[in-house]
Amino acid sequence: MSKKIVITCAALILSFSIFAKDYKASMFGIKSDGATLNTASIQYAIDYISANGGGQLNFYVGRYLTGSFHLKSNVTIQLYEGAVLVAFRSIYDYFSINNTPALILADKVENIGITGKGVIEGHGQEVLKSITNQVEKGLLEKSALQTKPALIHFNECSNIKLDGLILRDACGDVQNYSGCKNININNITVESKAVPESKGMVISNCDGVTLSNSYFDTTGNEIDTNQTSKNVSVKETINSKGKKLKASK
User: Where in the chain are the domains?
Assistant: First the structure.
């Protein structure tokens, strides 16, 4: 075999390996009709991509209804402009980590991300109605009203990236990061005013957090950082009144 053919074959193999790490959501039966509940399909896709070396799961224009799912190591979700992850309204479709429920969860994994110009829609009021209804029927404890679902909860994860997203109307706090390392968040918009006291970002026991070029409009504190977090940097980030935000304690 000639040297030229060997080089060409190697280039094709390399090209395939790169593009093989880019997956369309539709490949896994994930529907963009706003009516099909995609929780199991999204979780299967994430598990498959992580088990096969990692990659990017791409969501294109459409509304993708889902309950809670777990991100796994080396997987990025890409929400292209016009793509909306829509939270299912029933509280029974949410899972928890350390008693903190959320739509998107990650626990002790690394190299994860959610990027793109798409939207994560929490339907906060509707989820709260679901919780209240179940409490009134005696099917849930009253404490459920104190642990309302966040949009994002990552626990003891490392190398996290969020970029370009719109995070809208969480039932609880929008983002919750606990015990994480190396978090890089850039150019996100957080709009959560459907439910009282919805905090934009809660950082606890984390090391290495950078938030930049972002906008927050929330009913609770925009950013909460506890005393045990370190190396937290907030740059060029404002609230709805145009005030530059800092990492509060």
Answer: 21-239
Grouping H, G, I as helix, E, B as strand and the rest as coil, residue 241 is coil
What is the reported pLDDT for 142? 86
In terms of CATH architecture, what is 21-239? 3 Solenoid (2.160)
Q: Note the pLDDT of residue 248.
A: 64
Identify the CA nearest to 71 among candidates 88, 92, 47.
47
Average pLDDT for consecutive 10-residue bins of the chain (249 residues)? Answer: 40 39 96 98 98 97 98 98 97 94 98 98 95 90 88 98 98 97 98 95 97 97 91 95 83
Say how far apart CA 230 and CA 203 lie, in whole Å.
10
Cα-based distances in Å from 36 to 31, 43, 119, 136: 6, 14, 18, 28
Distance CA 40, CA 62 (A): 18
State the pLDDT at residue 147. 86
Count of CB atoms situated within 10 Å of the CB of 40: 14
Strands 100-107 and 95-97: antiparallel
Six token digits for residue 123:
């339907």
**Phi, psi of 191, deg, nearest 5:** -125, 105
Residues 208/234, Cβ–Cβ less than 8 Å: no
Residue entry with tokens 């016009």:
82
Question: Would you say 85 and 66 are in contact if contact means Cβ atoms under 8 Å apart?
Answer: yes
Distance of CA 106 to the CA centre of its chain: 9
The two tokens of residue 19 are 């593009």
Distance (Å, rounded) from C-alpha 48 to C-alpha 27? Answer: 11
